[in-house]
């Protein structure tokens, strides 16, 4: 079979094998192999005891608190204790495993990654539907985010299961993603013409509606981009920005939450079904508890991050001296108009009529913003 350009086409099965080989090699380099009935580095169980199951998990962004304080301790320390040794896990952050965030949803669906955390901003490249609850400009506070997520979650679960063969087990968020800038910013009107780091299509839409230039780049390259002048401003989490030292490269912070860095934790359907029923029940219960802890920490760190960045609080890292500016009424009005006229409109263009219908039956009635097909 050949493409219209005359280039030999690659079959889906061949692509799957190639992707599986590449990612399997990457994971093998960072995760110890699990021996059936024996977790790496632990003694074998007695013949009468059930063999322990070792899960291979790919987590969220390396180096931020969601991974170091929540995900990693849960899988490596808490889960073995909670399951009485029945379940153990090896976990690596996706950006340490050499996996592109844009590929995570597809790799979970293929079973290459049996259990994984996928950032919805990046997964939207595979399926724009997954990002509906965290569109840029939709959630000005965490209470609004909770309402929108609760309304959309049943539809998201059904879509992931039916369209991708994936079982949704948890929804995580990062601290509110705000604007870090080198030059003063009194309001959204000041951003016209500036180069602003973005991380998702809807952030690009939002930035362009302000008359600014969106520069899309991964989280790992953010500090260097500001240091070398490739971006004048950046959208990222308040505490995440402090953790990677953005207080050393910017001087101003506009505290309007634009997005919340939502991610989903999901299992490949086949891998999930292969677990004993009692262990699936345990995982669902404990992952809900982990989700609640992640949300509570993100809410706390949104404000704490601002205080760390402005020097109101000593957070143990490089001292922050940023000047923080809160949005005013004109900014809130513009946020809402950009959401309705640009962000949702472009999202529907990428996603299709089914997305407009899903929005209008779930988030639309709560947000009071209609998606027009």
Layout: helices, strands, pairs:
Elements (H helix, E strand, L loop, with lengths): L11 H19 L22 E7 L5 H18 L4 E7 L10 H7 L4 E5 H4 L18 H23 L1 E7 L4 E5 L13 E4 L2 H9 L3 E4 L5 H6 L5 E5 H6 L8 E8 L3 E6 H5 L3 H34 L12 E3 L3 H23 L1 H9 L2 H4 L6
Parallel strand pairs: 1-2, 1-3, 6-7, 6-8, 9-11
Antiparallel strand pairs: 3-10, 4-10, 5-8, 5-9
Helix pairs in contact: 2-10, 6-11, 11-12
What does this molecule look like?
It is a single chain. The protein has 373 residues and is an alpha/beta fold. It has two domains: 17-33 and 51-175 and 261-300, D-Maltodextrin-Binding Protein, domain 2 (3-Layer(aba) Sandwich); 177-260 and 319-367, D-Maltodextrin-Binding Protein, domain 2, CATH 3.40.190. Helix content is 45%, strand content 16%. It contains 13 helices and eleven strands. The chain has a six-stranded mixed beta sheet with strand order 7-6-8-5-9-11, sandwiched between helices. Helix 2 (65-82) packs antiparallel against helix 10, helix 6 (201-209) packs across helix 11 (329-351) and helix 11 (329-351) crosses helix 12 (353-361). The relative contact order is 0.13.
